[in-house]
Structure prediction request, 597 residues.
Amino acid sequence: MSESYEYILKTEHVRKNFGSLEVLKDINLSVKKGEVICIIGPSGAGKSTFLRSLNQLEKITSGKIFIRDELFLHRENDHTVDRLPREKQQELLLEMGMVFQRFNLFPHKTVLQNVCEAPIVVKKEKKDVVEARARELLSRVGLSEKADEYPSRLSGGQQQRVAIARALAMNPEIMLFDEPTSALDPELVGDVLNVMKELAGSGMTMLCVTHEMGFARDVADRVLFMADGIIAEEGTPEEIFGNPKVERTRNFLKSVLEV
Amino acid sequence: MKAFDFKKYRKQIIAAVIIVAVCIILGVLKPGREALLSRTSPEMQKLIDADAGSSRKRVTVTYNSLLVISYASLSSSGANVMSERYVGFLGKVYRADEGAARIVGQMVNYTYRMLGCGENLMHGAKLTVLLTTLTVFFGVLLGTVLALGKISKRKLLAKISSAYIFFFRGTPLLIQMFVVYFTVPGIFGFAWRDLFPASDAEAVYKGAFTAALIAFALNSGAYCAEIVRSAIQSIDKGQFEAAKALGMSYGQTMTRIIIPQSIRRMIPNVSNEFIMILKDASLVFAISLMDITTISKNIMTSEGSYLVFIPALVIYLVITAFFGFLFDRIEKRFSVYE
Prediction:
């Protein structure tokens, strides 16, 4: 799309409650096209919930979500106040690719079928066009020779790279990564991170919830430190890792980096 | 899906081939009707010859053939009551009026009748297998619809499905069948046999079978709904999320991602349901259909034979074993990706 916009993604005062538990307390974030943002923080801080509410896997309790400067969704007290029409919403949601901690590949489909499924079924693209693109993506993540295997035959790291290829097959503008390496054996993490680095280098807009501090330091344009449902501190990797201003950030970094 | 793995089943295949070959050889060697009847005693033959010229038959001739063994019985009524039985096996004809030979002859005759050989499709084992297979087929289809209804977010749909399941699981199948067979035509003023042309000699049986199938399928649908529902809900939530994140609609997610994965998990329970229906099928005795159970009971009452239930058990066991094996194969086929 050629229309110009300032922020590809923006949230204002996003809150999310699970019953009486306040998971997100007031999240304000603006993302420009091409930015790579890493979200770090202790578990239970609401990082995953925030990511999942962006692509509507969770319904926010209140707040506003803008996509390409358009008010995508506005909710107050668990009621939708304003939103784009459903078709438009659906169209914008397709611009967000998601990679899960537990891969969530379709076990009954081969690697190639996993990657081709959504473009064929959702976007109604031609099968041969999609397949050619899927094979290209699989070679990009280094798995062209696994195209006809079932996911169960692959290692965790390989499965996660397939999941990335599957999300990329929809040609999204933003990629959301929800702790993509947390479920992997340590020796498999590198391959996945390399794919993500390559992706960041190609100019993809990325939001990564991660515990890989090295990756955040090397790749991120901006690092958010989340704790107790708020963004406690944000800044460039140099600022966050070099000179954290907030006490909680310091303690957190100390505990993860010194292990 | 992989092609059939011949190497893995070599022993079974060899065994099956040998059994089939032996059956064919024994079948060819088996004495036929003419051979059995040629042994008839002169007295009986006289009566048969007399029958040929008159319209009133005094001799009843029965001939049964079961693959490898044949059986004939002749019995006369009237002033001159006689009966003779013969068993043919391996090219020889044996007199079977007493002892072990007589029991063998009876077994052949009973099995023949319970399988429904030579009778119309709505008799014996054929009826049981046909009714069960169709019931489970339609039951699973209906069950899938009901399961999707029950887990649907639309309250009304979920309520209707729950009520349906509650009703059909909470009332006896026999009465449900009576309602379909007697009450429904009573209210709407039709007869089940009228669905088939009057010239069809089997119209009564076909009509009753249709009614039974409807009742059975409606009932099985309620049980299958629970099977399908629990299979669907056993699929990892991550599968729904991944499909949603890729932009797939609820319908697409169900038909392309969730249901294909739940099929394998349904199979053991559907297999169980199949065997339950197979045995419940004996309820059709109540609407004039003749299944294995009804026929064996009738033989018991009319001929006083207490042995008749043994071949009945064997027939049920063979059918169950066959379908058990079949479901096992299907389950393996569906689990190639695991």
